[in-house]
Amino acid sequence: MSDNSIPKIVISRLPVYLRALSRMINKGQLVTSSHELGKALGISSAQIRKDLSHFGEFGKQGTGYQVEFLITQLSQILNLDREWEVAVIGSGDIGHAITRYQGFADRGFRVSVIFDSDPQKVGSYINGLEVMHASQIVKVLRERNIQIAMLAIPAEYAQKVTDTVVDAGVRAILSYAPISLNVPDHVRVSYIDPVTHLQSMTYYLSTEQDLMSQPL
Amino acid sequence: MSDNSIPKIVISRLPVYLRALSRMINKGQLVTSSHELGKALGISSAQIRKDLSHFGEFGKQGTGYQVEFLITQLSQILNLDREWEVAVIGSGDIGHAITRYQGFADRGFRVSVIFDSDPQKVGSYINGLEVMHASQIVKVLRERNIQIAMLAIPAEYAQKVTDTVVDAGVRAILSYAPISLNVPDHVRVSYIDPVTHLQSMTYYLSTEQDLMSQPL
DNA sequence: GGATGTGAATCCGTTCACAGCT
DNA sequence: AGCTGTGAACGGATTCACATCC
């Protein structure tokens, strides 16, 4: 049943479903079930059915889900039935890796412009893309109506650059800088900070184990 | 009050608190409050107090929290009062960026070994670290008793490599491969997939806005 | 006065379990 | 028989609001 306001956490799982479904299609699998999908993802089948039920009735009782149909539906829901242009800010190691990462293009995103403030880097090419000077951000993003930016810059510049890209019309930011950003309500932010992931995992790594497993 | 089993979601917020507190210390700030911290992070003050209360009473009524003291406490809780060695598997763009990323060393993690299966890359140096052949994974990780691995490899190899590092004694995995991994119960996994972040943000980017903001 | 720590209340998300369809 | 879709039950997390202490 199509609901009014869908929980953020549900939305965040849809791309994960999509990822798994894509793998199935690539393997030639045509049909799946909430059970199978759940097992592959470590999620309960009830949750998957409930999540999908927010948007419609995509399955057939007794049968399951047509993989391709479900992919189409999820893609539409997530506005992925188009290509999104993305700007990368920062051409250091991370910006470099992002710009060359094939995974974006494969899944609906095109890095179409990259900026840096270092004159040494401006004018160089990454993945066939010329690095532009940061002073051009507002002009270029507005011209091309780019709404997504990825920040691959040090924490100390992150808020200022955020303000700039927001001013340029960006409405979604994926930041690799390890700092919480302030943005207006109409802008979404996601963070990628590998260290926070590691730091929460070490909570569960009791030091004792260290002593047990000796070098052989 | 120190509780028995602390919710995962609480643990996952502690590194974020730590990040913010570190910035405060760097700015010379000695004292903060749940209010201030919450505002900086976009979290309610009650939540911060409740989270911390799982582990002890770290604040002073009427005053707030000593920043440095709180950092010390959180670091201990998360087992960060030591250095953790990390193995990177895969020396492509992502592995390269990870290995050179200063943020790990600054926050308690040392990338101390890197592997690749491509003979072309084995023997080359990244950040002063020689790339070793993947066939050495089990031997080296066991010898050095390394318990954390970061996977920077294509999805199709991810499960096999996961099995290998688990066999080698790894108990925490941070994977950059866009696929859900199967691991035994005693192993923790976190995922970094920028595309899933982008894909959930585009849900909120209605296409209409496109038409409004014309190129000028 | 001001900020913590915490039971109580509320809100939200997950799981249960089953009716209903194929 | 098998699997979906879903109200109901459950469990957990967040917020409230206040007693408590500096």
Describe what this molecule looks like in 3D.
Chain A has helices at 8-26, 34-41, 45-53, 67-77, 93-100, 102-106, 137-144, 155-167, 194-202, 208-212, and strands at residues 31-32, 65-66, 84-89, 109-116, 125-126, 129-133, 148-151, 172-175, 188-191. By secondary structure, chain A is α/β, with parallel strands linked by helices. Chain A has 2 domains: 8-77, Orthogonal Bundle (Arc Repressor Mutant, subunit A); 84-198, Rossmann fold (3-Layer(aba) Sandwich). A 7-stranded mixed β-sheet of chain A has the order 5-6-4-3-7-8-9. A two-stranded antiparallel sheet of chain A has the order 1-2. In chain A, helix 2 packs across helix 3 (45-53). Chain A is globular, with a radius of gyration of 21 Å. The interface between A and B is large, with 71 and 71 residues. The structure holds a DNA duplex (22 and 22 nucleotides).
Helical proportion of chain A, percent range: 40-55%
Oligomer: homodimer
* The CATH superfamily title of the largest domain in chain A: NAD(P)-binding Rossmann-like Domain
Number of E-state strands of chain A: 9
Estimate the mean pLDDT confidence of chain A: 94
Radius of gyration of chain A: 21 Å
CATH architecture of the largest domain in chain A: 3-Layer(aba) Sandwich
From N to C, what is the helix and strand string of chain A? HEHHEHEHHEEEHEHEEHH
Cα end-to-end separation of chain A: 58 Å
Q: What percentage of amino acids of chain A are in beta strands?
A: 15-25%
The CATH first-level class of the largest domain in chain A comes to Alpha Beta
Class from secondary-structure proportions of chain A: alpha/beta
